[in-house]
């Protein structure tokens, strides 16, 4: 994942003072209670119904329930999420990710940049089982978890790329989505060579991301146009969000591959294969 923009407020940053600098720093946060599949599924159904997702398909909701089980089981060892209750997982992870499908028409293949333990890519893959979604993640323990998820949830057409996305990333896609907290300008720069002309970048942001837009367009406006700026709330909650959609309007010049090879050799040595 690219560098985070620490000046931008985001709903995805932990705002617990202890988590930022108190006694809990460095310790894995564990859920107090993890429900078995049947109870978890019943509770997620009730939460979805109370937050305007009551008609969500039964089979897909059960896949999300299984995702919840696997996420909480691995939380005890790997500390993948700060959201530890089933209610928070259902609203701030699952509904949060699925809201994008109501706000815009996603383009595929879709690349999820810095997916972490699978957000928003896994819920979107469950929602769009026949479309190709690519998960990119640079932290190896998360990559292994994603591979396990793919197998246990029986998700097809879901490539997992264990590396960071940057200017030297050329996997061709028509859409890019991220729920990471990095600055919009950084994200556009990192995906400018893999996103095809006419493709779109979907940035899931907090409500105060406005100051990111002008600098992003000043730097990348030759290649990207702000197509949509959509403020919204998670249904029947006070949680505010903002979806920025940038469309790529022209190709970006490719880098000097010879210079890239030399830089690789300087960093890693000529013997790397």
General description of the model:
With 273 residues, the protein is an alpha/beta fold. It has one domain (29-252): Vaccinia Virus protein VP39 (Rossmann fold, 3-Layer(aba) Sandwich). Helix content is 40%, strand content 17%. Strands 3-2-1-4-5-7-6 form a seven-stranded mixed beta sheet, with helices on both faces. Helix 3 (58-78) packs antiparallel against helix 5 (121-127) and helix 7 packs parallel to helix 8 (210-220). The protein is globular and about 55 Å long. It starts with 16 loop residues before the first helix and ends in a 5-residue tail after the last helix.
Overall spatial form = globular
Low-confidence stretches: 1-26
Distance between the termini: 24 Å
Classify the beta-strand content into a percent band.
15-25%
Question: How many strands, what sense, and barrel or not for the largest sheet?
Answer: 7 strands, mixed
* Class derived from helix and strand content: alpha/beta
| H/E element order | HHHHEHEHEEHEHEEH
- Strand line-up in the sheet with most strands: 3-2-1-4-5-7-6
- Please give the domain count: 1
| Strand runs, count | 7
**Named CATH architecture:** 3-Layer(aba) Sandwich
Rg for CA atoms: 19 Å
Work out the helicity level.
Answer: 25-40%
Number of helices: 9
Task: Briefly summarize what is shown.
The protein has one domain: Vaccinia Virus protein VP39 (Rossmann fold, 3-Layer(aba) Sandwich), CATH 3.40.50.150.
Topology diagram in text:
Layout: H1 17-21, H2 37-50, H3 58-78, H4 86-103, E1 110-113, H5 121-127, E2 133-136, H6 140-152, E3 160-161, E4 173-178, H7 184-191, E5 195-205, H8 210-220, E6 224-233, E7 240-248, H9 257-268
Parallel strand pairs: 1-2, 1-4, 2-3, 4-5
Antiparallel strand pairs: 5-7, 6-7
Helix pairs in contact: 2-3, 2-4, 3-5, 3-6, 4-5, 7-8
């Amino acid at each position: 994942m690219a560098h985070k923009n620490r000046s931008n407020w985001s709903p995805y940053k932990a705002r617990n003072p202890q988590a930022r600098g108190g006694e809990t720093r460095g310790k894995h946060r564990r859920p107090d209670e993890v429900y078995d599949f049947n109870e978890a599924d019943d509770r997620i159904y009730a939460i979805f119904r109370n937050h305007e997702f009551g008609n969500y398909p039964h089979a897909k909701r059960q896949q999300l329930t299984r995702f919840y089980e696997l996420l909480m089981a691995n939380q005890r060892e790997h500390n993948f999420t700060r959201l530890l209750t089933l209610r928070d997982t259902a609203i701030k992870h699952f509904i949060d990710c699925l809201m994008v499908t109501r706000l815009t028409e996603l383009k595929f293949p879709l690349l999820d940049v810095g997916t972490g333990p699978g957000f928003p890519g896994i819920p979107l893959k469950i929602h769009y089982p026949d479309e190709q979604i690519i998960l990119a993640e640079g932290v190896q323990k998360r990559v292994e978890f994603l591979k396990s998820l793919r197998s246990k949830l029986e998700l097809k057409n879901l490539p997992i790329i264990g590396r960071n996305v940057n200017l030297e990333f050329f996997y061709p896609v028509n859409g890019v989505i991220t729920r990471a907290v990095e600055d919009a300008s950084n994200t556009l720069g990192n995906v400018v060579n893999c996103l095809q002309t006419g493709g779109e970048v979907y940035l899931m942001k907090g409500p105060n991301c406005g100051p990111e837009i002008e600098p992003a367009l000043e730097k990348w406006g030759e290649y990207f146009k702000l197509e949509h700026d959509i403020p919204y709330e998670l249904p029947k909650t006070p949680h505010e969000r903002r979806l920025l959609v940038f469309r790529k309007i022209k190709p970006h010049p490719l880098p000097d591959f010879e210079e890239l090879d030399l830089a690789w050799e300087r960093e890693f040595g000529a013997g790397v294969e």
